[in-house]
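DM between two lab members

TW: hey, do you still have the 60S acidic ribosomal protein P0 entry open?
JB: yeah, one sec
JB: this one, 312 aa:
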Amino acid sequence: MPSASRLVKKEVFAQKIFDMLDKYEAGFIVHADNVSSKQFMDIRRGIRDTSAVLMGKNTMVRRAFRVYAEKNNKPFWAELAKLLVGNVGIVFTTAPLADIKEEIAKYKVGAPAKAGSIAPVDVICPAGGTGLDPSQTNFFQALSIPTKINRGAVEIVSDVKVISEGDKVGASEAALLAKLNIKPFAYGLILHHVFEKESIYDPKVLDITDDDLIASIQSAVNNISAVALETNVPTITSVPHSIINGYKKVLSVALATEYSFPLADKVKEILENPEAFAAAAAAAAPAAAAEEKKEESEEEESDDDMGFSLFD
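TW: and the structure you got?
JB:
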């Protein structure tokens, strides 16, 4: 049976979680492998004005979430509790999620490759001098890395991938990278899930910018217009194109016949006397250039020292 003091601590911890769930509606589920206590301190300090970090025994946290969900009729928190598996924690926040994501990313720390660890990224040995003496070539031979001796030191001939993402780091790879003073990994809190107003989604969604959304909408509008024009079904997006296409057809008829209208008269005049319009355009070009130069000169004068000099 648990002691009374342990039960009190559990109740206090559960109440702390209840208070967080009352206060926050959004945040991240984060993976915390290889994150040092110093990193946690820095992260807490960096986001403490708007956010809170919850780390604890998963069984206790999940139980608190389920109890809160039942008492407050909020099943979302019970669903979120199912995602708390492994070495994970929760970052609650009231700030924009993209801002907190960027702030957390600042506290990644470089680390050497340790034998037996899983590589989070590909590791490349770059071409060039290593500073190692020729007696160290056995490390490179074991990993099939092409080398040559240049000025009494080992030189890697070309870039070579020694570890692939997701692979277990071997003793030879770890020893070689340590000798080359390469720290290929950076550890920090890894965002696994984002939750916001009873929705759960992938953190990659936060990387979508306004430009990406505009491009996506523009692509959809173009597709709708294309379908509408092909099927002759008018839509808001296709009507401007239909009007322009209609104008082109009427203009082509006017140019091929005696029929005319004001907009067609101008085109007919250009086609009948192209030299006159070419000469007019050539004459207008220097005037436009002079006007542009004048505007630039006026801007430069507005930025000068108003005619005063330090030596006056």
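TW: got it. The domain at 114-183 is CATH 3.90.105.20 (Molybdopterin biosynthesis moea protein, domain 2). The radius of gyration is 34 Å.
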